[in-house]
Predict the structure of Transglutaminase-like domain-containing protein.
Amino acid sequence: MAGNTAATGENWAVTATPAVAGLATLCAATALSSVIAGVLWLVYVAVAVMVVAGTGVLLRTTRLPTPVVFLGQLLALLCVLVTLFTRSGVLVVLPGPQALQDLVGVLAEALSEVQTGVPPVPDSNAMRCLVMVAIGLVAVAVDTLAVAAAAPAASGLVLLCVFAVPASLAEEMLPLWTFVAGAVAFALLLAVDGQHRHSAWRGRGGGGAGGSGPAAAGVAGLAVVVALVAGASLTPVGTVGRLPGAGDQVGGGAGGLGIDPMTELRGMLNQGASRELFRVRGLDRSSYLRAMTLREFVPNQGWQLGEDLPVGVPAGGDLPFQPGDSGDGERTKVRIEPVGWLDNWLPVYGKPRRIDNVDDNWRFDPARGMVYSVRARKAGEYELDTVLATPPADALRRATGSVGEVDRAYFQADGVDDRVRALALELTSSATNQFDKATALYEYFTDGTNGFKYTTETSGDTSADALFDFVFNGKTGFCEQYASAMAIMARSVGMPARVAIGFTAGYPVSDFQSITTQDAHAWVEIYFPGYGWMVFDPTPLSDGRGVVPPYIAGQNPDGEESDSSTSATTTTTTTTAPGAESSTSAAPENLGQGEAGAAESAAPTWHVVSLWTALAVAVLMALVLALLLRAAGKGPRTMSWRRPGPTGLASTVAAVSGAVSAAVALVLLVALLSWWLVVPLVLLVAAFAPAAVREYRRRGRLRAVAALGPDAAGAAWQELLAESVDRGTRVPNTETVRVAARRLAREHNLDDRGRDGLRAVVGAVERSWYSAHGGADPALPKAVDDVRESMSRNAPLALRARVLPRSVLRPKPPVEPSED
């Protein structure tokens, strides 16, 4: 009766482990509630977890090997994703090339939302897809560790990654209840496993848990490393804006929320949903809100902040004048309320004189005209005293003098195509002053007869130079390309120029101007001695959001200034509200995408096709290998090899094909996320090579035992010695077979069943030496199984011993036991 109770307890533990592992994953996923709004996403996560757990239970009942179960769970998860988030699946459910391409597009949209949203981000369809993929992969890793590898404690590392991602993104601490739920579920998982191990140790359970061999340990270890690497890789991709490198230093590169500090000449702009960023009060004229300025031009890469750090003073209080600023002009007091803005940059208007209600973490760099912080911060409402008035055109024409206040980097135009430089010289050849030169370049882009058109899509490249393509061939693009082209052309004719990134005027709402992500914009600023940096926006916007300064708006076709140009006002047309249909400028999340943005928006077809093909081949070869192993009489829940299995070329081809196809699939899967992960993956595969060698040797010996040939007894004995070495006990070569057997029984605490099997193996070895018949006892395979199962129950292998078996890493020449 007691034995039945113990068996029932063990069966309960084995049955409950997948369910509790899924519960632990689901509870850990609740930590994402701090960065994702709503609760519907959690339902999708629950579906993914149940599908993974259910698929694992179903496949293990058919006694398939652990690698096949692992791939089957991934395939089941993929089928659910295809069904829920695409409409192009084969028979609705199965993932085909088009469905995978559509799924990549949805994930790209989700990543864009992650990079630009403010926690908690909206519970959009794309976000649910991303979370379902991420937690689904975590569920596969946890299920493999807890069930197949029988190492639920190691799954805690994977679950910890789930907590680490929202903890690194949220400004506040995670809710206490999410931690409690995750901790309780993980403790329950350990308790269930402890009950199972206790029953096995006492010898009251049935056979050893299936699937806990080196193959399972290899897959489990791979799942841990992939989960840790993925968690480390995804953590910097978040809703908190950050400077490049996710560190404390300021430099060029890709940023987080808000404005990307690098603009590119090429790319396709993906428009996202409109999100409010600022509310501005007190602005009496339309003006650009400047977040940052970019100084350095890199051919075919775009504009960057520059390698050196900004040099700034505390932004609170009175501010120093910028280069060329005489200090004159009427001040305007503007109140700016950040709504969804969390970044390293604090946008300002015009020529700021004073900023109030900002802390000491913000600094003002007069040379660059921007307010910044070394860390992304959410600022409160701040007041800005600034000068918005601009000089008339005639004053700018007469602006002559030294430009010594300007850094020489603003003149740099290296790498510009000679044909582009020649065009700039031709356009400005008739101009006698810097202002007319700038106006000539400006009109070249804004005059409709020259063929330039604003669009969020760029034409295909026809040369290796992106600037040349835009100016001469494509002539279509968005604000970044127009600003980049005019700025570098201005430099090529000797004018100091830079690219500014910020926002257009927005649209009126009640008593304030609302600025959203759709108002993000890029323009050109050119330096004039005595006046500083003047705005020139060459982007031919057609929706009325562009701001035309009076020194440009007042010009007639002959270059003469009209009466209206002396006014210190700014000309603009009616601004379109976000709900209206119009062409919009660059959303913050898409600024600076360039070629990388084009690669994301256009699904990587060759990646998808290759991945699909590799996965299909891997699954087919794994199934073939499983069938061959089943034909040999091996199942994951039994150690017996009852019948001779396939030998020779067929077995070798099946094993090698299955391993190679699975490795190729994993490499492509990881490379689809990031190619830099391939090297660690290859190293990881090499790290698990000893376990693969040990499994290959074990199968060869057990196959020889099952064949009951002349070498069956020797193979049985060598396998038992290898099992002993893996557990840390090496039998001296000088001991006789009987003395060695007693050592095995004593060191590994064999129970009665194991000792009986060991005696049978010793007898078979001795008969093989002395018997005239030389045939093996038909009971030998059963005896070997009994000894190995007794070792597993009473001296279970640690995870490290499974992955790095001593019999492979520290081998000694095989020596037959003494016959004395």
Notes: Residues 2-29 form the longest helix (28 residues). The longest strand covers residues 520-528. The chain has five domains: 2-239, 276-387, 393-507+517-594, 604-676, 692-809.
